[in-house]
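dumping this here so i dont lose it again. seq + smiles for zinc ion
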Amino acid sequence: MSSITLHPLLDQGLSKGDPGFSGGKLHCHCKKNPVEVTLGGNVAHNHACGCSKCWKPAGALFSIVGVISKDQVQVTAGADKLHIVDKEATIQRHACKDCGVHLFGRIEKQHPFTGLDFVHPELSEEKGWQEPQFAAFVSSIIEQGFSPDRMDEVRGKFKTLGLETYDCLSPALMDAIATWTAKKAGLL
Ligand SMILES: N[C@@H](CCC(=O)N[C@@H](CSCO)C(=O)NCC(=O)O)C(=O)O
Ligand SMILES: [Zn+2]
Ligand SMILES: [Zn+2]
């Protein structure tokens, strides 16, 4: 049985981020005229995501994605190459039309996370980005054809890395969503 590739950055073991890190540039994978996005700070809630919608590098089972305030996200080159992958999705993922890499995902509708953009720190050459904190939507990899018989192996690998696994988001993020919902309903 072949070994599992969660994500190249996870398979080599986690390297800790720098709490004083102040941001950097993301680039798509195009050799010529790559799209460039400049982030004015570090990401938060960085996590491995097994959902079918987040961008993953070739061969990876999981995406690595964090959030950052949209005010700290600027497209600094190649804006004309960007398109929205799915206009109906909550997270409007802006991807390069040429290489398919997602540069940022923005929430435009009323939502607990409106104002936060979803980004992939691995698209940056700078070091210091927050390391992944947990694994989310782990069971979602089955929906994409991964064998349910090997889920213990997947969750075990995350455990070895010291990352908790969830089949939705982390408790902190789920609590934030529920708080927003309760406030909207006038219950809090
Ligand atoms: N089983 C589905 C789950 C998709 C899903 O709900 N993804 C989450 C997490 S994305 C980053 O953590 C989500 O919030 N999606 C909103 C959106 O994608 O617009 C699947 O695998 O597709
Ligand atoms: Zn590209
Ligand atoms: Zn996802």
